[in-house]
C-alpha cells in the first residue's frame, strides 16, 4: 500500500475520532463501506451520534452531503426530483432532488412506503436514477448511510430482504463510555464545524481504485465462501447469505485490509467483518427468536464451524 495513503487514512480516522469520541471501530467500518463503494444501515436508538458521524465524514473527505427524513407521506419524486414545465423554453426541465449528492443520510428509512423505498433501491444498486425515460448518473462517490430505530415498530415498513441485501454493512454506534460521555457534557470534544478536511474527493477516488488492487489469496477466498455457505447450511438459519452478499464480503475485506495498512486480505479481516456483513442478510428459522443475542451466537457458531486456512 502507498505509505502516503496509509498515513492519510490514519489521519482521517484520527480527525473524525476527535468529534465522535470512543467510536474508532465504527468509524473504520463506515469508511470501509465508503471505500468499497457500498452503503451502511445504522440500526440504533436516537441521539447516539449517527448524524454527527455522517456530517463529519462528509466534511473530512470533501464530499457534498444531503439528509432526507423519511416519513409515510414521502414520495419517490421528493428524493429523486421532478420535471417541471418551463414556459419560456416550452419544455420540461428536470429539477434534481436531494439524492444527487455524494453522501446521503437517510433518517428512519423504514418510516416511508415500499414504493419510495424502491426508488432509493435503484439508486443504491445502479448509482443512477431514471425519470421520464431519462437516466441520470449519480456521483461516483454516492453512498447511502441510512438509519432505523430498532425499538419503534409502530407506523414503520420493514425493509424487504432484497433491499437489506443492498447494504454492505449494518452497524450500531451504541452508547458512549462513562469517560467519553463526561467529556461530551463538559464540552471537551471538538465541534463538527471545526473539523479539518483531510483528503479531497479525487484522493478518495484514488483510494477506492487502490481497494481493487488489494490481493486475496485463493485459500482466503475459499475461506470466505465457506463462511457464506455455512450460513446456508446452519440448522438455525432459514435464509443464508446471497451470492451478492459473498461479493460484498470480499469487497469489504479488501477495503478493511487497506485501512489496516495492508495490500492483502487475511482471515482475521473476514472474521472481524462477518457480523456486520451477514447480520442483516440472514433470516432465522421460526422457532428461533430473532433477538440480537441469538443472532450474535449463531454468527459466532458460523465462524467456529469453518476451519481457518493455514498460511503458506
CATH level-two architecture of the largest domain? 3-Layer(aba) Sandwich
CATH topology-level fold name of the largest domain: Rossmann fold
Mean pLDDT: 89
Could you say which overall geometry the principal axes of the C-alpha atoms support? globular
Distance between the termini: 21 Å
Order of helices and strands: HHEHEHEEEHEEEHEHHHEHHEH
Largest sheet: 5 strands, parallel
Q: Order of strands side by side in the largest beta sheet?
A: 2-5-8-1-9
Number of helices: 12
Number of strands: 11
Rounded to an integer in angstroms, the radius of gyration calculated over CA atoms is 20 Å
The top-level CATH class of the largest domain is: Alpha Beta
- The fraction of residues assigned to DSSP E strands is 15-25%
Q: In the residues, how many domains can be counted? A: 2
Amino acid at each position: 500500500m502507498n505509505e502516503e495513503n496509509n498515513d492519510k487514512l490514519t489521519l482521517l480516522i484520527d480527525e473524525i475520532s476527535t468529534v465522535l469520541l470512543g467510536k474508532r471501530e465504527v468509524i473504520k467500518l463506515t469508511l470501509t463501506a465508503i471505500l468499497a463503494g457500498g452503503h451502511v444501515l445504522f440500526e440504533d436508538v436516537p441521539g447516539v451520534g449517527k448524524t454527527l458521524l455522517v456530517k463529519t465524514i462528509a466534511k473530512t473527505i470533501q464530499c457534498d452531503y444531503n439528509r432526507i427524513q423519511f416519513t409515510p407521506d414521502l414520495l419517490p419524486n421528493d428524493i429523486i426530483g421532478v420535471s417541471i414545465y418551463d414556459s419560456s423554453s416550452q419544455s420540461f426541465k428536470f429539477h434534481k432532488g436531494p439524492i444527487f449528492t455524494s453522501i446521503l443520510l437517510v433518517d428512519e428509512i423504514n418510516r416511508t412506503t415500499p414504493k419510495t423505498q424502491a426508488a432509493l433501491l435503484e439508486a443504491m444498486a445502479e448509482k443512477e436514477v431514471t425519470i421520464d425515460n431519462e437516466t441520470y448518473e449519480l456521483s461516483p462517490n454516492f453512498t447511502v448511510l441510512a438509519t432505523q430505530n430498532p425499538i419503534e415498530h409502530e407506523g414503520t415498513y420493514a425493509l424487504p430482504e432484497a433491499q437489506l441485501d443492498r447494504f454492505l454493512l449494518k452497524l450500531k454506534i451504541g452508547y458512549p463510555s462513562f469517560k467519553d460521555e463526561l467529556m461530551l457534557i463538559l464540552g471537551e470534544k471538538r465541534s463538527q464545524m471545526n473539523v479539518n478536511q483531510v483528503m479531497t474527493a479525487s484522493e478518495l477516488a484514488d483510494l477506492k481504485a487502490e481497494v481493487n488492487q488489494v490481493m486475496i489469496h485463493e485459500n482466503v477466498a475459499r475461506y470466505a465462501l465457506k463462511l457464506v455457505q455455512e450460513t446456508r447450511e446452519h440448522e438455525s438459519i432459514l435464509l443464508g447469505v446471497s451470492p451478492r452478499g459473498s461479493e460484498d464480503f470480499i469487497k469489504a475485506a479488501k477495503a478493511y485490509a487497506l485501512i489496516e495498512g495492508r495490500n492483502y486480505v487475511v482471515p482475521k479481516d473476514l472474521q472481524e467483518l462477518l457480523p456486520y456483513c451477514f447480520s442483516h442478510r440472514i433470516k432465522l428459522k421460526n422457532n428461533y427468536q430473532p433477538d440480537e443475542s441469538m443472532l450474535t451466537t449463531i454468527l459466532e457458531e458460523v465462524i467456529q464451524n469453518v476451519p481457518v486456512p493455514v498460511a503458506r
